[in-house]
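Troubleshooting entry. Yesterday's outputs looked truncated, so today I'm pasting the complete records for two proteins to confirm everything comes through intact. If either block looks cut off, that's the bug. Protein one:
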Amino acid sequence: MKLTPTSSQTVGPFFSIGLSPLYQNATSESSDKTITLTGKIFDGNHQPIPDAVFEFWTGDKFARVATSEDGSYSVVFDHSRANSATFAEVLIFMRGLLKPVHTRVYFGDLDAIKRNPELKAVPGERIGTLLARKAAAANCYSWDVFIQGDSETVFFHF
């Protein structure tokens, strides 16, 4: 009997290639009624990950984006869904992971987020890894993700 490897048994950039027709086009989606989230994803050595895929959910809205060669990404959310009291659920797919990792990105101020009852199990000094920071441009936020290391983003197990 010949065993054939499947995508969960091999390492490669399958997600960024196979899902490319389904990515959000952030430039065509952006308007004054939206906010834009940009950032980068890094590995444990603080090197950018060029072939990761992010999936974001805010309420009933969904967006999928890929990272570029420098690990950067950009996604657009409806303004009413991403205000100071909300967050987006995030799945990250990438080479080397057999399953995606699950995290959240919060929009708002760090003190308000620290009082969120859903985050009681997260050490206070680590909650900042879930916070999107307001950028200089109007309606823009920045959020970097670290897969491993001292700056590792908080990931959740379900």
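Protein two, checking that the full record survives here as well:
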Amino acid sequence: MPLIRRAVAADVPAIVALLADDPLGSTRESTADLAPYKEAFDAIDADPSELLLVLADETEIIGTMQLSFLPGLSLGGATRAQIEAVRVRDDHRGQGLGEQMFDWAVAEARRRGCSLMQLTTNKSRGDAHRFYERLGFVASHEGMKLDLRAT
């Protein structure tokens, strides 16, 4: 059974490859220059409110997700767990590994006293939407983004 663990710097190339290995990721991510990803990893790894995870079998990384723990004043001062960048390698999907990762993430969020777990997902990811709904997530809000890289 694959193991969920905190990512280490040596995992960055495999994580980036997972992020790049889908129709959306292939337009946003690149394994050609890992320097910005390694810099981002260092920032994530140093922040106690961030947790970058990998799902690994005996020889390789087959999944990843990032958890952010966001304290807030709304909902009575609730802390939220935010899930981002969820990926399971294509040849390992349909084996319950994504659900295993989410079960782990929910347990960790509860352990840290979170009142709410949330995620964003691209509107084009129909399979992901069905998966999240099966896990009990509800499309309760409409998200918006502003790309600050644009001029």
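Both blocks look complete. Sanity check on protein two: The longest helix spans residues 97-111.
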